[in-house]
Every structure is written in structure tokens, then in C-alpha cells.
Specification:
Elements: H1 9-24, H2 26-36, H3 47-62, H4 68-82, H5 87-102
């Protein structure tokens, strides 16, 4: 394996925790995203946006050691980097509604 592709053990463990958590809670995460994405069906979202949202919502709802504002900021940056020109704003809006509905606040 190329040394540039090697990740530290902690990063691998965290990534595994995210993937497993999203898979385990996918129906609940998708329901929350549907409720918060005004005028957008989940199936109409790009795969990139939809999966960034799933990861971020999982972090916000299930990983108490990560402040919601950090999850939102990272998701927005991922959307800007890998999504469309509107992905960052779209992801930010959906996640803000989820955080407000959950009473999580921004810290």
C-alpha cells in the first residue's frame, strides 16, 4: 500500500465507527434529513450531499463528544470540496434545521 494512503489507527477506528453507525441508524438519519430538507426528496439529492448529511447527522445525534458546530463546519467543507457549487449552503441549511429541531444548539 502506498504510504500516502495509510491512515493512523485512530482515524481508521473513527471512520469505522462512522460507517457502522450510519449503516445501523440509516432509516432514522434519512427520516431526519427528509424532515429538514425543505422541498427536497432524499432520492433527488446528489449521492455526495446525501452521504455527507448522513455522516454529519450521525455525529450530531449520536457522538456527544463532537460539538454540533464542528460536525456542521466539516460537513459544509466536504460539500464545498466534493459536491456542487450549492452543496455547502444546502448542507448547512439542512443541518441547522436538524440541530434546532433536536435542541442541540450550536455548541
Amino acid at each position: 500500500m502506498c504510504s500516502a494512503l495509510r491512515a493512523p489507527r485512530q482515524a481508521k477506528e473513527f471512520a469505522g465507527r462512522l460507517v457502522e453507525g450510519v449503516c445501523l441508524h440509516r432509516e432514522e438519519l434519512d427520516r431526519m434529513i427528509r424532515e429538514a430538507s425543505l422541498n427536497w426528496r432524499l432520492e433527488r439529492m446528489t449521492r455526495v450531499d446525501r452521504n455527507i448529511l448522513r455522516l454529519a447527522v450521525f455525529e450530531i445525534i449520536f457522538l456527544e463528544d463532537i460539538p454540533p458546530s464542528v460536525s456542521i463546519d466539516e460537513a459544509v467543507e466536504l460539500g464545498k470540496l466534493y459536491g456542487s457549487t450549492d452543496s455547502g449552503a444546502f448542507i448547512n441549511g439542512v443541518l441547522d434545521r436538524i440541530v434546532n429541531a433536536a435542541g442541540e444548539g450550536s455548541e
